[in-house]
Write a structure and sequence with these properties.
Blueprint (H helix, E strand, L loop, with lengths): L7 H13 L8 E10 L26 E9 L2 E9 L4 H10 L10 E4 L8 H9 L3 E4 L10 H15 L4 H11 L5 H10 L1
Parallel strand pairs: 1-4, 4-5
Antiparallel strand pairs: 1-2, 2-3
Amino acid sequence: MASEQHRPVVARRRATWKIRQPGLNPERLVFFDETWAKTNMTRPRGRVFNGKRLIAHTPHGHWKTTTFLAGLRTTGLVAPLVVDGAINGDMFVAYVKQQLTKALRPGDIVILDNLSSHERDETRQAIEAAGAELRFLPPYSPDLNPIEQAFSKLKWLLRSAKKRTVVSLWETCGQLTDRFGETESRNFICHA
């Protein structure tokens, strides 16, 4: 947990969020975030029979990092996209206009963290043009974003898959989005 959460201003914003969130209709919420995926991902732990040594190989040479973007609704992941490398503000605005807004319905509430690329006017305009509302989580509060739990599961699945090429990593990301069903997605949202 970030120590910044104890700052008075941040603590007040977190408390206000926790008070107001139960009044929001979960069916209308779309939590958004991005995460990384790499071609060198392996599971950090494993199991083996007692008395046996666990041996697993992990590449330490050249690997490629990509960014996975998605929204989380009560029905699962929406508008997933994988891009090469990191994203910037222009790429995020393009994603919102071309991908995310297609997954929105009038009356939805899109919830973002406070990354500077998320706070651009074009982002708000595109979301509002789709009939949705834009809200931001309190700063230093990834624990209040349920998509973080989904990303934790996604990374575990990617580590288990051990994909070593960008193409296979991207294909696997696409296949894994179907592994986030309605029950699990609702649980993620209720837990946060």
